[in-house]
Specification:
mainly alpha; Four Helix Bundle (Hemerythrin (Met), subunit A); about 0% strand
């Protein structure tokens, strides 16, 4: 029997790893992107690919924090963390952290009681568990579109 937490898990996997209905997933788009490409700003005023990936990391951290009972709001620095030094190692570490957090959240979602999906994770935040879990998927896909545009713009310059 497929449970709602299992369906949410599958959507989180598809948005990050592949087989997403809409097109390329986040990791499919990041495949082959170098640190220099990730740090580039081919569109004036837009975030870089690296900044977007760090922002996605912060979203996972936020929901995992709420699952642990911590409802304090995210600071601006947490929401858009600064990029580390421009090295291939740091870039790979950032992508690996995103993947690791996706795995952690997916396990937490699979373990989450289906009967609590319509209840907020913490009292300080009015969003239900379901809204936050599917929201991470939506957030990944929103920024996947931006990453695709940044890759295209970077290739054109």
């Amino acid at each position: 029997m497929i449970t709602e937490p299992n369906r949410l898990d599958e959507q989180l996997r598809r948005a990050l790893e592949g087989e997403a209905w809409h097109g390329p997933s986040v990791l499919e788009l990041l495949d082959g992107v170098s640190a220099a490409q990730a740090a580039g700003h081919p569109i004036a005023g837009a975030h870089s690919i690296w900044e977007l990936v760090l922002h996605l990391v912060s979203d996972y951290e936020l929901v995992l924090r709420r699952l642990a009972g911590d409802g304090h709001p995210m600071t601006a620095a947490e929401d858009w963390p600064a990029c580390p030094a421009l090295t291939e190692e740091n870039w790979r570490a950032t992508v690996e952290e995103l993947t690791r957090l996706n795995t952690r959240l997916r396990q937490a979602v699979r373990d989450f009681p289906a009967e609590r999906l319509d209840v907020p994770l913490v009292s300080e935040v009015p969003y239900t568990a379901y809204t936050q879990f599917i929201g991470v998927t939506q957030h990944n896909l929103y920024h996947a579109g931006q990453i695709a545009l940044l890759k295209r713009a970077g290739a054109a310059t």
